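Box 4.2: Ligand-aware structure prediction
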Amino acid sequence: MQKVSADQAQTVLQNDLILKVARGEEVERPPVWLMRQAGRILPQYRALRGKLSGFKELVETPALAAEVTIQPIDELDVDAAIIFSDILVIPEAMGLTYEMVEKKGPFFPETIQQAADVEKLVSGDSAASQLHYVFEALEITKRELAGRVPLIGFAGAPWTILSYMVEGQGSKTFSKARKLLYQNPKLAHQLLQKITDTTIAYLKLKIAAGADMLQVFDSWAGILPKAQYSEFAIPYIRQICDAIQEVPITVFAKDAWFALEELGQLDCNTIGLDWHLDPQDVRQKIGPTKALQGNLDPCLLYAPQEEIAEKTQNMIKGFKKQHIVNLGHGVYPDTPLDGVKCFVNTVKAYRY
Ligand code: CP3
């Protein structure tokens, strides 16, 4: 397979709006994409998915992962593609396999309980380099996109990945994961370091395979007290941001309103905001240099089209500039496609 280096790819990008904003350059309108844009909102995704044994077959078959990554570019004309994969490939590469149970979500048959479990995990490059199907999916996508829009690579933040590895599945409280921080903080730090080493190696391989920009998802940031977020989450996200200098990086820590000042100190280009946050409050807390991404309530896309258009325009005005338009979290699977299109088209018609 022909490899496309990040440098080569960037010279042929026809639409680099999102990279410009991430780097602090002036643009005539904000770029727009949606978290979870590749997935169940699209009939063409559901059709393809219906023919397969399950979610993992899609994730692990590079040509199919590339196909669903490009579907929202064709259908919605958004300004970036995000590679179709999951944050849970990292625990799997480290030695904890996951299942994706239909209508329920992720399930890990084995979880992390004690020191011996952490010791036997593979980490760093030896773990990350096993994920060849992801890198191949990036290479195919990059080639098939042919420079239409930049390609975003992603990973879970170490705290969120730890939560799944300890809990074994989704949870309302993630109390098993939080309990570990009190009962065995040393073990938690060891595990977080192994996840971090693997994530850095993984993101570097994603860049080598063609990712033009990266996003780190800390989906469960909001369940920690501020002091624990400072101790168990921020230092590991910082290591990731410091290690990635090749392409712009976004940190999306959901419900981490209490940690905005610390997030603002990270060496990242963009901070993702959930829908609770007021852009001007955030701007004050994180300072003038970073781009902000977000942050409409995903449920707005169920509203009448006039309301979607009006609230989208108001949001853009509220952010002023240095803004990448998105929702405040992933788009919900049953969102009407017309609502999504109205949102995207409103942004694309906007001029500062
Ligand atoms: O379009 C995109 O955003 C790219 C693809 C993507 C998926 N998962 C595909 C997916 C991305 C970026 C993710 C990240 C992810 N995965 C996160 C962080 C973002 C967030 O939502 O906070 C988390 C926490 C996961 C773990 C995960 N994967 C859960 C909890 C679930 C089940 C819940 C659900 O949405 O169904 C998944 C499954 C999953 N990952 C699906 C998709 C499209 C649905 C599976 C299907 O098609 O059957």
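In the box above, the bound molecule is coproporphyrinogen III. The chain has 18 helices and nine strands.
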